[in-house]
Design a protein that fits this description.
Largest sheet: none
Number of domains: 1
Mean pLDDT: 91
Number of strands: 0
Radius of gyration: 13 Å
Order of helices and strands: HH
Low-confidence stretches: none
Distance between the termini: 24 Å
Number of helices: 2
Shape: elongated
Amino acid sequence: EFFDHVTVNADDAALRRNRLNLLSEIRDSLDRIADFSKIKG
């Protein structure tokens, strides 16, 4: 739903930065769980 209803690259610079930071935090959290570079595809 997030990606269906939220524009990450919003026109408002502060909003865009916050959304990009959120995605970065999610990626960093997932990287601590598993090494996704090992998945083929």
